[in-house]
Description:
There is one protein chain. This protein has a single domain (about 20-200), classed as Four Helix Bundle (Hemerythrin (Met), subunit A) (Up-down Bundle), CATH 1.20.120. Helices cover about 70% and strands about 0% of the residues. It starts with about 20 loop residues before the first helix and ends with a helix. With about 200 residues, it is mainly α.
Amino acid sequence: MNTERAVLDVSDLPTVVYGPRDLMWWGTVGFMVIEGFSLAICAFTYLYLRKNFIEWPPYRTPLPSLTIPTINMGVMLASIPLAQWTKRRAEYLDLKGLRIGLVLSSIVGLLIMGLRFFEFAALNTQWNSNAYGSVIWFILGFHATLVLTDTYDTIGLTFILFHPNREPKHYVGAADNAEYFIFTVLLWVPLYVLVFLGPRVL
C-alpha cells in the first residue's frame, strides 16, 4: 500500500504581506465601500431634500459658520502626507519611524475629533429643527464615527507597537490604518462642500 504524501515547502513564503495579498486589506476595502455608499446615500438625501424647499436653508435658519470647519478640513488635508509616510514606515518594517508616525497620527486624530465637536455648533441649527438640520447633523455625525474609529485604532496600534510582544501582523495593520485615514479625509472633502458651502450656493 502506497503511503507517500505530497509535501509542499512553504518556508520561503513571506510572513508579512501588504495590499491585495493581505486578507485584512480586503476587509478594510470592504469597510470603505460600505461606508462610502452609506455617506453617498446621505449626500443624495441632502440633495433630494433641497429640491423640496424654496429656501435653503429653510426660512429663518442661519447659514453654517465656516471658520472651524475650514480649519479642520485644512488639518485633515495637511495630515495626508503624515499618513502616507507612516504607511511607508510600516511597509519598510521601520519600527522607530512607525512609532513616531503613529504617535503623531494619534495626536492629529484627537485634534480632528476635538474640532469636529465644535463643527456641530458651527452648523448653527439643531438636529430636530427641520429636515435640513437633521440631514446635516447626520452627515457630520456619521463621518465623525469614521474618524473616531480610525483614531481609536491608531491609538491602539501605537500602544501595541510599543509593546515588546508586538507581531509582524501589526505592521500590516498600521499600513491599512493609514490607508483608511486617507480614505476618511478624501471622503469628507465633497461632504464639507455640501454641508458648509452648499447652503450658500445651492
